[in-house]
TrEMBL record:
Family the UniProt entry places it in: Belongs to the sigma-70 factor family. ECF subfamily.
SUPFAM superfamilies: Sigma2 domain of RNA polymerase sigma factors (SSF88946), Sigma3 and sigma4 domains of RNA polymerase sigma factors (SSF88659)
GO molecular function: DNA binding; sigma factor activity
Domain RNA polymerase sigma factor 70 region 4 type stretches: 112-164
Keyword Transcription: yes
Protein name, entry field: RNA polymerase, sigma-24 subunit, ECF subfamily
Transmembrane regions listed in the UniProt entry: none
Domain of life: Bacteria
Organism of derivation: Catenulispora acidiphila (strain DSM 44928 / JCM 14897 / NBRC 102108 / NRRL B-24433 / ID139908)
Length: 172
């Protein structure tokens, strides 16, 4: 890209340096139309000049340097946007709001109290409550599983809930 060097006395002005001085702000504006933050725009334009500098032996026509730079800015902007999209897709999903440690401790205490209270009620009431409410079985399924009538499941269930309520109140 050092194609048309001009000499002014003892000073040689490099075409790429001159292009940088003359067109940096317009290339930055081009990148700003394609990207959303100034830092990314500056990175893209700087990278474009680096790439053009590296490929200066292939750019024979000094009139095409600016066109080559513009195309490089556009391509690098596309790549930056593509990397952002991939990053957003691959980013881990935020964790759901977690309960505080204190809430977790209270829940553990409640669970322990419930298990202790369940152990304190009659065996058949406990079986009905566990199958019905913790295993999500229907009354008919519980009756079939335990070999009792649906009416017995309802009776054991209601008595078990009452006994459980009394025992849980005693823990509080």
């Amino acid at each position: 890209m050092v194609a048309s060097d001009r000499e002014t006395g003892d000073v040689t002005v490099d075409l790429l340096t001159q292009t940088y001085r003359d067109h940096y702000s317009s290339l930055l504006k081009l990148a700003a139309l394609l990207l959303d933050d100034l830092a990314s725009c500056e990175d893209v334009v700087q990278e474009a000049f680096i790439r053009v500098h590296s490929a200066r032996s292939r750019v024979r026509d000094s009139d095409k340097v600016l066109a080559y730079l513009r195309q490089t800015v556009v391509n690098l902007s596309r790549s930056a946007l593509r990397r952002r999209l991939i990053g957003m897709r691959l980013a881990p999903k935020p964790m759901p709001d977690m309960a505080s440690a204190e809430e977790g401790a209270y829940e553990l205490l409640e669970k322990d109290a419930l298990i202790h209270a369940l152990r304190g009620i009659q065996r058949r009431q406990r079986e009905v409550l566990v199958l019905r409410y913790f295993s999500d079985l229907t009354e008919a399924q519980v009756a079939d599983l335990l070999g009792i009538s649906i009416g017995s499941v309802k009776a054991y269930g209601s008595r078990g809930i009452e006994a459980l309520r009394v025992r849980m109140e005693a823990f509080r």
